[in-house]
Specification:
Structural class: alpha+beta
Number of domains: 2
Radius of gyration: 26 Å
Number of helices: 2
Strand content: 25-35%
Order of helices and strands: HEEHEEEEEEEEE
Number of strands: 11
Length: 149
């Protein structure tokens, strides 16, 4: 038997998140008509269209940057730059535009030391926010051990 309180809490949480599932009253009759306890609801469907925006944002849980980090004009397109051959123990950090407070300046690509064998580097990038653009630093991924900086 499922306790009534967790089911109600799940229904309230789903409604609060805007997932508003269609709830159907349980018509199983397992409790009998003499029972004064209400029947347990069961979830029949969830509106996927309402769930999709939450799923799209699920991988982006980082807080927005400070207002000081926002640049109102977008960065120029990246310059064409050949990637040199890989070097063992290093990762290539491609060139990118940096903001010096008044204008963008090109920072050429460079090798960076791999912190441990098997670590992979995800390069930084400019990301658009509601107030402008901000630089998101590159990060290292150690696979099953987690991410670092």
């Amino acid at each position: 038997m499922i306790p009534e309180r967790p089911v109600r809490m799940a229904a309230i949480l789903a409604g609060t998140l805007g997932l508003v599932p269609l709830l159907a009253e349980s018509a199983s009759g397992t409790r009998g008509s003499a029972s004064s306890a209400p029947s347990l609801p069961s979830i029949s469907t969830i509106d996927i269209a309402k769930l999709q925006p939450l799923l799209a944002q699920s991988d982006d849980l980082a807080p927005p940057p400070s207002p000081d980090a926002i640049v109102t004009n977008p960065p120029p397109a990246p310059l064409a730059e050949g990637m040199p051959p890989p070097l063992p123990g290093y990762a290539w950090d491609p060139g990118h535009w940096t903001w010096d407070g008044t204008q963008y300046q090109w920072q050429p690509g460079s090798y960076i030391i791999q912190p441990t064998y098997g670590a992979t580097f995800t390069p930084g990038y400019w990301r658009q926010y509601s107030g402008g653009w901000a630089w998101v630093d590159g990060s290292w991924n150690w696979g099953a051990e987690g991410e670092g900086e």
